[in-house]
From TrEMBL:
Protein's name according to its UniProt entry: NADH-ubiquinone oxidoreductase chain 2
TM annotation in the entry: 57-76, 82-102, 153-171, 178-196, 202-221, 233-254, 274-294, 322-343
Domain NADH:quinone oxidoreductase/Mrp antiporter transmembrane per the UniProt entry, residue ranges: 25-284
EC code: 7.1.1.2
């Protein structure tokens, strides 16, 4: 792709998030969402491959449908109240349709089926954008409308997403699909805390973006597309192999890594509001995600001893990607033990 065109598309991606995040009128928020969708489609389809074209088409259909439902819900609310303010979404049909639309845009279960297929059809860089940057506009709308959204439905979506994200990820060997189901499970935790603490939602979203980005940097630098490729990482870079262990464990949420902190705070907040059954179910369902993270960790670091392999099953070209930079970024993002910084 022409660098000028690519820079224009990336600029529109950034601009669309700014428009959606700073708008108080539903029409401007919808314009930001549409600009976001139109900017990402050429990036997804730039491979000129049938799988990439199929993924871009699926993504466009889902996002366009969700945007139309958002426009319908805002129009319905304005019809009854005469107000186009995002924060004044008051009638139940409008809040219900908005919740469904944002669930589709984010890929929350049970409307998650498009996300793994789209991510499997695009490059790792495009998948990184889908799982991190593209979550920001819908999350912004959830943040602005959180006090008016139906709490019971949000809790149901959270439980379903953590369960489906963990359970479906157990059966995968493709790294992009594993990261997609990881995204679904993490989004379930964010939706669980949405109506109780918006500041904790932002912190969970930030840590999720940092951990997911560091894992994708590792996969891009090592050209690992499947779990079998991760098992042969020693011959490519022992440093990246060691770092990927920490990244996976942090994604699983084990202390004292940064991935444990938001889950711990969410469980504490749920217990404070006497939602013990919900907190218990979330903690148990997260064990499913931890299972496939630990399986990847075992495959990566414990299956093959750290020496050069003579196997020709994987073509090993000379890597031109900045492995040292990736290692530094990954260590900075995942090895930061923030637990001692918490005030008692």
């Amino acid at each position: 792709m022409n660098p000028l065109i690519l820079s224009m598309l990336l600029s529109n991606l950034a601009l669309s998030v700014i428009i959606t995040a700073t708008s108080f009128h539903w029409f401007l928020a919808w314009v930001g969402l549409e600009l976001n969708t139109l900017a990402i489609i050429p990036i997804l389809a730039k491979q000129h491959h049938p799988r990439a074209t199929e993924a871009a088409t699926k993504y466009f259909i889902i996002q366009a449908m969700a945007s139309s439902i958002i426009l319908f819900s805002s129009t319905l609310n304005a019809w009854h109240t005469g107000i186009w303010d995002i924060t004044q979404l008051t009638i139940f049909p409008a809040t219900m349709t908005l919740t469904i639309a944002l669930t589709m845009k984010l890929g929350l279960a049970p409307l998650h089926f498009w996300l793994p297929e789209v991510m499997q059809g695009v490059t790792f860089t495009s998948a990184l954008i889908i799982t991190t940057w593209q979550k920001l506009p819908p999350m912004t709308l959830l943040y602005l409308t959180a006090p008016n959204l139906p709490t019971l439905i949000l809790f149901s979506l959270a439980l379903t997403s953590t369960l489906i994200g963990g359970w479906s990820g157990l059966n995968q060997t493709q790294m992009r699909k594993i990261m997609a189901y990881s995204s679904i499970a993490h989004l379930g935790w964010m939706v669980a805390i949405l109506s109780l603490s918006q500041s904790l939602l932002l912190f969970t979203l930030l840590t999720y973006i940092l951990m997911t980005s560091s894992m994708f940097f590792t996969l891009i630098a090592s050209s690992s597309k499947t779990s079998k490729d991760l098992g042969q990482l020693w011959s490519t870079s022992p440093t990246i192999t060691s770092i990927s262990l920490i990244t996976l464990v942090s994604l699983g949420g084990l202390p004292p890594l940064i991935g444990f902190l938001p889950k711990w705070l969410i469980l504490k907040e749920l217990a404070t509001h006497h939602l013990i059954p919900l907190a218990t179910a979330l903690a148990l369902f997260s064990l499913l995600s931890l299972m496939f993270y630990m399986r990847l960790t075992y495959t990566t670091t414990l299956t093959i001893s750290p020496n050069t392999t003579n196997s020709m099953m994987k073509w090993r070209f000379k890597l031109t990607k900045p492995l040292n930079t990736t290692a530094i970024i990954t260590m900075f993002l995942t090895l930061t033990p923030l637990l001692p910084l918490i005030a008692p």
